[in-house]
Amino acid sequence: MSINEIEQAVQQLAPDELAKFRDGFAHCDAERWDRQMERDVAAGKVDTLAEEALTDLREGRCKDL
Fold this sequence. Notes:
The chain is mostly helical. The chain is built from three helices and no strands.
């Protein structure tokens, strides 16, 4: 199925079906993002950012939200 076919199918969904699709898609997308983040963390791709954030915290450059 092509992207165009998927877009057309989504446009034809009834409002309740669209809501279910949206929720399911958001859940699927979030799970993929989480898995990618886990791989990036395991590979050390965020180590520099984490150390920068910790340095900022230690040096008082952070604000409570």
